[in-house]
Amino acid sequence: MQLARLFKDFSLYSIEPVAFKIVSFLLLPLYTAYLLPAEFGELQFIISLGTFLRSVSQFGLNTAFWKFKNDFPSEKLPDLSFNVMATQFYIGSIVVALSSIVVFATEESTWKWLFIFYLLALLVKLISENYLMVSRASQQPKLYLRITLTQLVVFVTCNILFITTLGWGIFGIVSAYMVAFMLTSMVYYRRMKSLVVGSLSKDLQKKLVAFGGPLLLGNLSILILSISDRWFLMTFSTETELGLYSYGYKFADLLGTFMTYAFQLAWAPLAWKAITNDAGRKLYFQVEKLIMIGFPVFVLLSLPVLFFVARFITVNPEFIAGLNITYIIAFSHIFYAYYSFNSVKNLHFNKRNNIVSGNIVAAVLNTALNIALITTYGMLGAALATIISYIVMYAWIEFVRIPELDSYKNHRWKLLVINIIALAACTGITVMQFGNASEWTIALSSFAAALVLVALSFLLGIISRSSMVKLKDEFISLRKKPTPH
Q: Where among 200, 233, 248 does a domain terminate?
């Protein structure tokens, strides 16, 4: 029952990030009908750059919220959330002001107005994000669901109205974000006021910034990894190729949402508790073992299905060429998921410098690889730069020794072998895609690779029926333990 509870929470808290990804798919016929690949590329560039600056506004404070949450009694939770949101608003307002000055002083492009408008929309989004975070912290999944669905319905409705009826194009899409974030924040304010409005405390804000600030550099490095491909494609290639790349990226990003953001939403509260004691650490590494097998299998089974969906929903067939990089980007998300999972143990044992230094190294490597590869290989070069950088970022913190955890690491090298085989399958399928292999050949190859990984996992003794029963028992044990302070 406890294991089922985890996956129930996983499903509920997956709705907000996954729903927007799914809606992006449902809106693709609309986008591909009304936007050219170059316009789609410009839109994705604006969104990527805005996402990078949004991370600056967040300043690592969302992570700090979960770190400090266990030290606050439930009646003091509004104080914590209010100080997190207020601090993010201060920083976000400065980011918007400075970005406006820089963009209008240096850019002649017509997208600068759209970019600033999108930054303002993200500033408004801080409010609804705070609502969602607090509803999770106070264990109110139904409230979380209502807020998410409201935002989603408004976003879809505005997209259809602004693009098809008013003919606003890219501006209509950015406007849909603004209206959805603003309306949701207003509608739920009275319901959320008692949960998110508390007393401001300079001392608490200093503590939050002191914890989250050192993580900022690492977070920015991660975002450089996630957007530099599009930046360099915009610089060294064409807006059309950027549009194709962004289209293929969307399919991989949907799977990445399940493997990283959605999974972490459900796992993070348990992870911080698990890493503190012997039974919990055993559970922690059991879960790690499952995801290092399950995520590659999940991607190999899912992408062929998504490709058939893509053929059905894409109005302009010119976009289909972007799918050639999807396997590489999806496997990049796998290694980012591994990195995110391993970050908890590094943070718990006060090894934030390992995370930050690894992120910086990966970001510098990614920049160099993008410059070297995009000029020769175009969007394939951008994809290769992405996956190599994510592998390095994961390896950097994975192989840093934490003596307290040495006794819990079993099957380590077997898991690495499984993932090397999965990478080989990814490489082979990508070669077939660029070689214009048929969809059925690619699908059968992908399914076969997934079956091989599962069979090897059982043959090597990495997973078994008894280990799954043991995992269930460890979840039950962890749930019963009080949260350490």
A: 200
| 360, 217 Cβ separation under 8 angstroms | yes
296 and 350 belong to one structural domain? yes
Round to whole Å and give the CA distance between 340 and 203: 29
Q: How far apart are CA 67 and CA 84, in angstroms?
A: 12
pTM: 0.75
Strand ranges inside 341-422, DSSP E: none
Tens of pLDDT, residue by residue, the chain (485 residues)? 444 555 555 556 556 666 777 787 788 888 888 988 888 888 888 888 887 788 777 777 777 787 777 666 665 778 888 888 888 888 888 888 988 888 777 666 667 788 889 999 999 998 888 888 888 777 787 888 889 889 999 999 999 999 999 989 899 999 999 999 999 999 999 888 888 888 888 888 888 888 777 666 666 677 777 778 888 888 888 888 988 998 999 889 888 887 777 676 666 666 666 666 666 677 777 788 888 898 999 999 999 999 988 888 888 888 899 999 999 999 999 998 888 887 777 766 767 677 778 888 888 899 999 999 998 999 999 999 999 999 998 988 887 766 666 555 666 788 889 999 999 999 999 999 999 898 899 999 999 999 999 999 888 887 766 655 555 555 555 555 554 44
| Domain hosting residue 284, numbered range | 1-15+214-485
Q: How many domains is the chain partitioned into structurally? A: 2
Last residue of a domain, which of 200, 227, 249?
A: 200
Same domain, 355 and 295: yes
User: How many CA atoms lie within 13 Å of 340's alpha carbon, on the beta-carbon side?
Assistant: 22
Kindly state whether residues 282 and 195 are assigned to the same domain: no
> Does any domain span residue 454?
yes
